[in-house]
């Protein structure tokens, strides 16, 4: 079973809470918006523990190393069966300053050409209604868990 771990960064604003979400880079997500956004996360590579993976992946995808403290949330299972561990942290960052790592892919398929793509191509802060429209539907419960924890 595939497992990944990530961090749901949030901040308090006058109107409530905003969530930091990222949009996957690469050719498969270029025309996808609603339902394609996600928390910064990545695959757990044993023997790394899930929280260490979440911290590493957040840094790889944004350029920011988070110090904690972290709020553990209940893991979710995405449609494809991937188990996602998540922690929340209150913090702030400027989406304009996010620097993502890259990955290589043969593109177009069977062309023999290797092309480099950013792991995330967009990021931003969203209110709960906005985030629910954009985030992968199985990750909505992470937003709701955090709201419940903060209430």
Task: Extract low-pLDDT stretches.
Answer: none
* The first-level CATH class name: Alpha Beta
The ordered H/E elements are EEEHEEEEEHH
CA-based shape: globular
Q: Find the CATH superfamily.
A: Nucleoside Triphosphate Pyrophosphohydrolase
Per DSSP, the total helix count is 3
Total domains, how many?
Answer: 1
Q: Major sheet, described briefly?
A: 6 strands, mixed
Radius of gyration: 15 Å
CATH architecture: Alpha-Beta Complex
What is the name of the CATH topology? Nucleoside Triphosphate Pyrophosphohydrolase
Structural class: alpha+beta
Q: Could you tell me how far the N terminus lies from the C terminus, measured between alpha carbons in angstroms?
A: 33 Å
Number of DSSP E strands:
8
Q: Could you estimate the helical fraction of the residues in percent?
A: 10-25%
Strand content: 35-45%
* pLDDT averaged residue by residue: 94
Protein name: DNA mismatch repair protein MutT
Keywords: Hydrolase
Pfam family, one: NUDIX
InterPro entries: NUDIX_hydrolase-like_dom_sf (IPR015797), NUDIX_hydrolase_CS (IPR020084), NUDIX_hydrolase_dom (IPR000086), Nudix_hydrolase_domain (IPR051325)
